[in-house]
Amino acid sequence: NDADGVPHTRVESESIDRTLTSRPALAAFAEWTSKIDRIEGWLARRREIAALYRDRIGDNMVTANAPKAVVDGSCFVNFPVLVPQDRRQEIARAMMLDGFDVGLSLYANAHKHPKYVNVAGESVNVDTMAASTIYLPTHFGVSPAYACAVAERLATALGR
User: Fold this and answer.
1) Pick from 16, 41, 105, 144: CA 20 to 30 A from residue 23's CA?
2) Residue 103: phi, psi to the nearest 5?
3) Which residue stretches of 11-109 are H helix?
4) 33 Cβ neighbours under 8 A, 6+ residues apart
């Protein structure tokens, strides 16, 4: 939805780009090797940040009812939080204006894509979730203090 931010643009083709089936450059292997060595540390950091969010606003986490083992084993590329749908834009905008790194939906509902609108069924739950979710950062640049400040600011916006 364009009202949620920058519209999604996809470049589609019927052919497969030859670079997708070719061997990656040696430089790519070198980059991957250096990153692979850091995966465990990055994953631990994301989980640490997510745990701080869970301590303060965990009952608003999209998967708040997931079993503890599932949550503890998640990679938390981001931390999705449910907010009142009618206040989502207001809350996200206010947090961004206050200097906090939060985001809206990462992907549009695929069922709304022109290529799939003729597929039978409905995806109301996906629409509702996308329209009610704010994403909090968990990347390695997020310090524990910053994560606590983000969680506190969101809790305040939610009236806690």
Assistant:
1) 41
2) -140, 170
3) 26-36, 39-57, 68-72, 88-97
4) none
For residue 53, which of 82, 25, 18, 26 has the smallest C-alpha distance?
82
pLDDT tens for 91-120 read 999 999 999 999 987 677 788 788 888 888
Q: Please state the rounded mean pLDDT for residues 60-88.
A: 91
Q: How far apart are the first and last CA of the chain?
A: 30
Q: Could you tell me the two tokens for 128?
A: 């509702």
Res 11: pLDDT: 67
Tell me if 109 sits within 8 A of 125, measured CB to CB.
no
Handedness of CA 33, 35, 41, 46 (dihedral sign): negative
